[in-house]
């Protein structure tokens, strides 16, 4: 990774003028600044940031925190109200869905137009056109107006174009959440290829797991300011605590159901779950801290053309604070899978260290590298834990006393 900054922001502010009603814009024009008929909304304040060549930066924050505004400023689709932005290199961006596409043009016409805007010559576009269409999976729809496309087709084509131009900087703003399971896997593979090639990537996502798995650094934006900047585990832990504080007064009334979708080519899904405490099967399990054995058996089915998937189990509190997790990928556990694509995995936690309280079990079925999540199931079991001692917290850590 080079130490040369390719993106620099110095004292960047972005302010929007919000009008209560359309006629106030006319009043503002007539009075020519002698009176204000708007309110200032500061989307970003005092942003200072340097991104080095080859870095992968993750951006997290609640809705309205300023994430999209920051990415648009870097792309040049917005201008700052104050401060200086310097970008060195070819940028390819996936911002809001369909940005840069003319809905009246066909997919073919939009590919040529967008690739030209991103700096490719006619010869280069012609050489890469077949690969773009093949990657997007649009097929015969390439000559249809994009206004007839589904949201998934839209983003697949946009991603295929953006990543085919060999960008120096790739910027992604939650666009991949629209793609289907098979394409999402392909897109993450493409992102990892770009990362391995030393490209600079800015990745905005609500998936904290992806931020931690992919990124070199993370930024937590909160109400337009950088709340924390550093290594992903540190930033995400701070952001998790913030979210837990926001939701601590909320009550959870969800049923203990598994939310699965139909299996499609290039994807996988969870088919069944069995949770046991001391070999007793139930969806509401009673455990004794440091004594009971908790086991979670996850059944799955996957496209036989895919590598064997990985499984992760997370234990959360009633307000969704993550207590702990275990992943077959992280533990280097290779799962068995039958020729028809079915398989299962069993996680066993002996002498369960959870302290008194109520917890939920969440499941995730992911690709072999644990980057793309094929399927997930929330609250598949409720854990009601009791204990004998007065220890406080979520878990009992192994420890000794010396004097």
Question: How would you sum up this structure in a few lines?
Answer:
By secondary structure, the protein is α/β, with parallel strands linked by helices. The chain contains 8 helices and 18 strands.
Q: What Rg, in angstroms, do the CA atoms define?
A: 25 Å
What best-fitting shape do the alpha-carbon axes yield?
Answer: globular
Helix content: 10-25%
Arithmetic mean pLDDT:
86
**Order of helical and strand elements:** EHEEHEEHHHEHEHEEHEEEEEEEEE
Q: Report the structural category.
A: alpha/beta
Biggest sheet overview: 6 strands, mixed
Per DSSP, what share of the residues sits in E-state strands of 2 or more residues? 25-35%
Amino- and carboxy-terminal Cα gap: 48 Å
Which sequence of strands runs across the widest sheet?
Answer: 5-6-7-3-8-9
- The beta-strand count equals 18
Residue stretches low in confidence (pLDDT < 50, at least 5 long) are 248-257
Question: How many alpha or pi helices?
Answer: 8
Explain this structure.
By secondary structure, the protein is α/β, with parallel strands linked by helices. 24% of the residues lie in helices and 34% in strands. α3 crosses α4 and α3 (107-117) packs parallel to α5. The longest helix is centred in the middle third of the chain and has 16 residues, at 181-196. The two termini are 48 Å apart.
């Amino acid at each position: 990774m080079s130490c040369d900054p390719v993106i620099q922001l110095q004292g960047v502010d972005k302010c929007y003028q919000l009008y209560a009603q359309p006629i106030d814009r006319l009043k503002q024009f007539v009075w020519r600044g002698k009176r204000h008929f708007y309110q200032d909304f500061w989307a970003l304040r005092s942003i200072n940031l340097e991104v080095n060549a080859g870095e992968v930066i993750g951006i997290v924050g609640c809705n309205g925190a300023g994430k999209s505004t920051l990415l648009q400023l870097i792309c040049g689709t917005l201008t700052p109200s104050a401060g200086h932005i310097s970008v060195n290199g070819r940028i390819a961006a996936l911002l809001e869905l369909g940005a840069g596409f003319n809905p009246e043009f066909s997919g073919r016409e939009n590919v040529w137009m967008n690739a030209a805007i991103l700096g490719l010559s006619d010869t280069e576009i012609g050489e890469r056109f077949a690969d773009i269409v093949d990657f997007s999976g649009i097929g015969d729809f390439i000559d249809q107006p994009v206004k007839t496309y589904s949201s998934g087709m839209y983003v697949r084509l946009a991603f295929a174009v953006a990543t085919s131009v060999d960008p120096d900087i790739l910027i992604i703003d939650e666009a991949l959440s629209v793609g289907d399971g098979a394409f999402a896997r392909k897109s993450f593979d493409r992102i990892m290829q770009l990362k391995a090639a030393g490209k600079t990537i800015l990745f905005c996502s609500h998936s904290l797991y992806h931020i931690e798995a992919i990124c070199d650094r993370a930024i937590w934006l909160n109400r337009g300011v950088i709340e924390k900047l550093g290594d992903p585990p540190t930033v995400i832990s701070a952001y998790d605590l913030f979210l837990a504080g926001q939701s601590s007064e909320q009550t959870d009334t969800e049923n203990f159901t598994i939310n699965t979708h139909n299996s499609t080519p290039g994807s996988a899904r969870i088919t069944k779950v069995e949770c046991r405490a001391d070999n007793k099967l139930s969806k509401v399990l009673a455990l004794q801290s440091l004594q009971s054995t908790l086991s979670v058996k996850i059944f799955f089915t996957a496209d036989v053309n895919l590598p064997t998937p990985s499984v992760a189990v997370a234990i959360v509190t009633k307000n969704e604070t993550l207590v702990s997790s275990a992943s077959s990928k992280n533990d280097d556990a290779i799962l068995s899978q039958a020729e028809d694509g079915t398989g299962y995995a069993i996680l066993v936690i002996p002498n369960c260290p959870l302290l008194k309280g109520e917890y939920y079990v969440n499941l995730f079925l992911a690709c072999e590298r644990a980057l793309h999540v094929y399927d997930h199931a929330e609250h598949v079991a409720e854990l009601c834990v009791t204990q004998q001692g007065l220890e406080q917290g979520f878990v009992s850590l192994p420890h000794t006393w010396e004097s």
